[in-house]
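Why this split exists: single-chain examples teach little about how molecules sit against one another. For that reason, every record in the complexes split bundles all components of an assembly together and asks for one structure covering all of them. Below is a record exactly as it appears in the raw files.
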Amino acid sequence: MSVSADRLPQPTPSEIKRRKPGLVGWVVNRLGMDDTMEDQYNRVVPFHATNYMYCFGGIALVLFLILAATGIMLAVYYQPTPDDAYQSVLNISTHVQFGWWIRSIHRWAAGGMVLLVFAHMLRVFFTGAYKAPRELNWLTGVVLLVVTMGFGFTGYLLPWDQKAYWATKVGTDIAGSVPFIGHFLLVSLRGGQQISAATLGRFFDLHVLVLPAVILIFLLGHFFMIRRHGISGRL
Amino acid sequence: MMTRSGFLKWLIGIFGAVSVAGIVYPVLRFLKPPAALSGAIGQVANVGPLSGFAPGKLTAVAVHDQPAAVQNLGGKYVVYSLICTHLGCVVEIAGDAFHCPCHGSGFSPTGTVTHGPAKLPLPTYHAQTQNGSLLVGTIDLSRAAYPGWYKGEFA
């Protein structure tokens, strides 16, 4: 079945015979994408790419999904105001059933994701998988690395304890040392000269709204290009 | 007669169901708000007139249907939860202190542990006097971090 200019053509009897059964089939039959999907299902992983080092990116994705799920759950109880933030985090760990578990998973998965994204980058670098025609995918990967770091940096402030406060003070001071635009970066991140309620609000906004939107867009681009290019050749 | 492949399919199905339940159950429990947190502003119990609490004594009362004790420290009122921090039994008032009949935990007049196996002090409620009555709110979370299974916190 091929797609005409503005609408799907009526199926011929032989095409109706090829129709897929089941729930997935119900959708696929209505989108006329059987051939596209068939092509996707029939990809073979090349033997050299069955090495565990080729799994880093995939594991990073799994960790991202875990972080999204547990993060959505933590946001149920977390309150991003200076008066309540620390107590709400404490409540999650001590009063909410399985709260300590969800929070621990979020924390460990966060550290793991940074590690695996970095390992994935090293693998791509040392196997030369960034070379033509895959440069654009490397560039989206650079953005994804920065966004992952951004998640870590903004998430670190949210418990609003001493460690969070001073880490953010140091981190935003570093942003402030950039030539020419440093001061602008610093006050933009802090929402003022000092770390305050505005800082917590901005970091929370970045952590749960801005960065997730950015990472989703770039992940889709990243994965689309993997499928488009296929896995790079062996060394 | 069950075939081997049929049996294995059942086995995979059971393992799969257990795995899914192992995720769904904690998530549902997580979403259920603990009473200590949902106790919201305004949900206040009136435990009676102040004349009912003799100075220097502990008086048993019910706060939101949970056992508690009011301590009158010369006009200053402290409300203790009587749910043992060990395994959730109801703690008995023993003179001016507390004793748990289940495993022998003892608590001082200020709620601190004097005898194991309990490790955490008895929690107190937020309380204030108004028009000669004692009003009791939610558990004072700032006093100590209590474990999530602590019964008194979950309605």
